[in-house]
Amino acid sequence: MFLGRSAAGVGQNAVISKYGIGHSLLAVPPLAIAYIVNKKTGIRCEAALYTLMFVINGALFLALLAFYLAHFYPARSVWLTVLIAGLATTWWPYTKLDFSEPLVLTIVFLGFVLMRFGYPFWGMLIAAFTLAIRADSIAVVGPLAIWYLLQNRSVRACVRMAIAVAPSIALVMLANYVRYRSLFDRGYAGERFSSSFLVGVYGILLSAGKSIFLFSPPLLLGVLGWKAFAARAQLRSDAWLFLGICATQVLLFAKWWDWSGDDAWGVRFLIPGVLLMCIPVVAILRHRALVIPVVAAGIAVQLLAVLAGPLDFVLLLRGQPFEREALYLGGRDRVDFEDLRFNPSYSQIVGNWILVRYLLHLPPAPENPSDVPRVGTRLFDAIPAQAWQSAAAWDFVWNLHRNSHTSGAVTPVGVK
User: Fold this and answer.
1) Running DSSP on this structure, what letter comes out for residue 326?
2) Can you tell me the distance from the alpha carbon of 221 to that of 283, in angstroms, rounded to the nearest whole number?
3) Selection from 322, 319, 371, 372 nearest residue 346 by Cα
């Protein structure tokens, strides 16, 4: 778009992006700056500036959270809550990944703050832009609109909301028409809400490999603190909004064919709902015996994704066919994403823990072969040592070079 070229007109095999145009529009400024820098100096900096967009997005949400909470809680409680959200939830790893869900959360929360403090039209106008980023952000924007209308029950308020949402809907339709010659989205035509609802709910909430409580332990504190948060009259409607958005997202994505958002750290679809439901943590910070261990667990989980890449283990599992012992039946079974989702021994958290141990030159010891037929194959033993070594690379902010292992290298695959 920046160069004024149309993918639709480049040959018969042109690839049209199925994703929302909003993400691309947000990416234009950093890529435009990188283009100019390259023209003037010959230096390529697209990756750095594009990634910086997500770092800034992460910081902006935390700043907005501090601004919002500062109206109701003392500074100490505000900053502790901000630190918990920034370091002990999946928000930290997602400042390194170019997924659209973090963008949705920050933009919607900006809209919410504007609406909350006296600018309803501009707040909804901004929040509605997320419809152009992800069509499923209706699960966030919809409850926000209902939250406002329940407090402002008038025809004028309904008209105001409709006008605020109209530009984003028009943008989405225009993008659809340019790509598909249709006003309706065809990007996900082959993907459906075809999963078992109960499996999806269980997977999102309680599964050993993808539970939102495992990947963001402070969510448990948010659930426990919700009642105290809602007990404040000035925050009651906000508490119901946060709960409504989280519940709506769980119910929506439980039916989606890829409810787990496999190529991600945890369930990326639930980032907005999870972070909003972590906000009530502020109401129970005084319960240190509960808060400290849960927050420590959250930081430990995020460090596994920050020190080693959040997707390194997922891409390792997708890159080669690995096998494990078939218990009681004999033979070998493929290690696949069902193991990652539901088997605690094969979860992402365990996989990244092994990668970090490799980086520290402290790999696990091989298991006793005589135990395998009874207890099964451990994740470490299901994947060859050379593959672990190839995938293990420091990925923290100051790391500039990945390890150049050639033995057993795994070819990365595209991220969904």
Assistant:
1) -
2) 9
3) 322
Who's near 88: CB < 8 A, 6+ residues apart? 216, 217, 218, 294, 295, 297, 298, 299, 301, 302
Cα 404 from Cα 411, distance rounded (Å): 13
* Bridge partners for 325 per DSSP: 332
Q: How many angstroms separate the CA atoms of 341 and 266, rounded? A: 9
Phi, psi of 232 (to 5 degrees): -75, 125
Read off the DSSP letter of residue 308. B
Burial of 339 from C-beta contacts in 10 A (0-12 / 13-18 / 19+): buried
pLDDT in tens, 146-205: 999 999 999 999 999 999 999 999 999 999 888 888 888 767 777 889 999 999 999 999
d(CA 316, CA 321): 10
On average, the pLDDT of the chain sits at: 90
| Sign, Cα dihedral of 346, 308, 217, 235 | negative
β-bridge mates for residue 333, sequence order: 324
Place of tokens 């033993």: 381
CB half-sphere exposure, 30, CA atoms < 13 A: 18
pLDDT digits (tens, 9 = 90+) for 268-308: 999 999 999 999 999 999 999 999 999 999 999 999 999 99
The reported pTM is 0.91
Contacts of 167 by beta carbon, 8 Å cutoff, 6+ apart: 125, 128
- Report the SS3 class of residue 384: coil
What letter does residue 118 receive in the DSSP assignment? T
Using the Cα atoms of residue 185, residue 190, residue 194 and residue 200 in order, give the sign of their dihedral: negative
- Taking only Cα atoms into account, the Rg of the chain, rounded to an integer number of angstroms, comes to 23
Q: Which of 161, 129, 130 is nearest to 148 (CA)?
A: 161
Residues 275 and 61: their CA atoms lie apart, in Å, by 10
> Which pLDDT value is given to residue 2?
79
Q: Which residues of 215-237 are buried (b: 16+ CB within 10 A; e: fewer)?
A: bbbbbbbbbbbbebbbeeeebee
DSSP for residue 193: S
